[in-house]
Input
Amino acid sequence: MAKFRVFFFLAVLLFASSFLLQVARCQSDSESDADADLVAETVEEGRVSGAVGDDSQNFEGWNFSPASGVETVCVFPKNPSKLVVAGEETEVLIGMKNEGEQSVKVLAIHASIHLPYHHMLVQNLSAMSFNNASVPASVQATFPYTFAVSKYLQAGTFDLVGMIVYEVDQLPYQNIFYNGTIEVTEAGGLVSVETLFLISLGFALFVLFGLWVRGQMQNLSKKTKKVAKVEIGTKTVDASMDEWLQGTAYTQSNKSKKKK
Output
């Protein structure tokens, strides 16, 4: 009975986990679709071009607030599942919408990788600087950003934090265009953590089901082997019973039978 309860609990857990994963995917897809719409609008406005170069400067210590009227979103155009292969480049499109009254001068884009839940820094990704990129008032623009995590990074789930730094009226500001999780896999690896979890859970359920069937078969075999014992032969009377019955009508009747 206990094995059956464990099997039933794990079956419910498998169903619930599959349902939650499906809901998370739907929510992620809906958010990606909304961001993609905004980025598509910025593409229609045209990409803002300028002198672009890689900058080795560490932007991790920068802590500016976002400017009023400036909104940013991002999408992974070729990777909606946000599955990043270690050592390979991943492209991100950043959409900036300037609803302010002054022009926005874009300075740089940078990102970093952190451990989930602890926010411990794992890697500072490459920074991209702009020498002459601006977004006028009431204009939308798109900025491409390409990053690559270290090829030695262990596969797993990490937090990606991406920021775009800009100036408005010569005052620095920054927006976080992405602050969420990504799935890092090794080069050539096709199995994700989600797939491994489902495979392991399915294997555990299969083993428990086999143990439950085996227990049921053993109980059934024990029941079939139980045969009622039948005594064949003369009836024996315990001597202690004879002593206890001395002087009673039972002993007297036995004596009369023996005389005959």
Q: What stands out?
A: The first strand starts at residue 52 and ends at 55. Residues 83 and 183 are 5 Å apart (CA to CA). The helical segments are 2-45, 193-225, 239-244, 249-259. Confidence is low (pLDDT under 50) at residues 15-36, 38-51.
